[in-house]
Amino acid sequence: MAVQITTQEAVKKIIDKSSVMIGGFLGAAVPLKMIDEIAAAGIKDLTVISIGAGYRGGGVDIGKMVLNKQIIKYVTSHVGTDPNLIKQIVNEEVELELSPMGTFVERVRAGGAGLGAVVTPVGMGTEVEAMAEKIIVDGKPYLLFKPIRADVAVIKAYRSDPLGNLQYQGMSNTNPVMATAADIVIAEVDEIVGVGEIACEQVGTPGIFVDYIVRGHSYEERKNIYEELWIATNKL
Predict the structure, then answer these.
(1) What pLDDT is attached to residue 57?
(2) Cα 105 from Cα 180, distance rounded (Å)
(3) pTM, whole model, 2 decimals?
(4) pLDDT at residue 236 in the model
(5) What is the pLDDT of residue 204?
(6) CATH code of the region 3-234
(7) Each residue of 48-73: pLDDT tens digit?
(8) For an engineered disulfide with 111, which of 30, 149, 191, 223 has Cβ 3.0 to 4.6 Å away?
(9) What is the chain's alpha carbon radius of gyration, rounded to the nearest angstrom?
(10) Which NCBIfam families match (predicted)?
(11) Contacts of residue 210, Cβ cutoff 8 Å, sequence gap at least 6
(12) Spatial separation of the C-alpha atoms in residues 181 and 22, rounded to whole Å
């Protein structure tokens, strides 16, 4: 059964040199409060696994960890929105592992399912070929990518019950698949409700996958954060 803890307690589950999956993409469905705690804790030499860099302009969500230089390797499909991250990659301060967006998700899914590889024709004839092993299946060329797993996954959901059953709202993004592919799963949620208040058909991630639940920002607080962010970045 999942255990409810504070964000300060949860961040202690992440140590130097850990591999950490972080759900969400460009501000959507991102565990903002846990990212703030990771940045404040100064945990270093992290391998961060996320489908995309922080919200445009840099210094937002995962971008806070970039500014702190806490990341030594970034596994992703998209880096173009964070100039600070791009600079660190160019300067070889951060090692970059790229794969196409759909392939990235399937690699995480394979990691959660215990599969040995993702085999796909996506990327054949492009620069992606250099990122994977090429194999022949039934006379046709494919690219073979290894599965992705992490020591810790920090994901974002709308609600949780005390058992760790998670309900998503709107864009769940990479959060459900990442919940299956880490040794420790920390779910940041808007609110925690009683057992039975989340109907079985609304459960996006069963509690068996979740180790810890933390209370994040409320829906209204997140709305205000993003409204201020959008106004500020649209002035850039």
Answers:
(1) 66
(2) 12
(3) 0.93
(4) 53
(5) 96
(6) 3.40.1080.10
(7) 999 998 877 667 789 999 999 999 99
(8) 149
(9) 18
(10) pcaI_scoA_fam (TIGR02429)
(11) 2, 160, 164, 165, 166, 179, 185, 187
(12) 11
Report the 3 state secondary structure along the chain: CCEECCHHHHHHHCCCCCEEEECCECCECCCHHHHHHHHHHCCCCEEEECCCCCCCCCCCCHHHHHHCCCEEEEEECCCCCCHHHHHHHHCCCCEEEECCHHHHHHHHHHHHHCCCCEEECCCCCCHHHHHCEEEEECCEEEEEECCCCEEEEEEEEEEECCCCCEECCCCCCCHHHHCCCEEEEEEEEEEECCCCCCCHHHCCECHHHCCEEEECCCHHHHHHHHHHHHHHHHCC
| Structure-token pair, residue 168 | 């998503």
With a CB cutoff of 8 Å and minimum separation 6, the contacts of 6 are 214, 215
> If pLDDT is split at 50, 70 and 90, which confidence band does 145 have?
very high
pLDDT tens per residue, range 95-140 = 999 999 999 999 999 999 999 999 999 999 998 898 899 999 999 9
- Six-digit token string for 214: 């933390």
CA 167 to chain centre: 17
CB-count exposure of residue 218 (10 Å: 0-12, 13-18, 19+):
exposed
* CB-facing half-sphere around the CA of 79: CA atoms within 13 A: 21
For residue 141, give the amino acid letter.
P
Between these two residues, 234 and 151, which has the higher pLDDT value?
A: 151
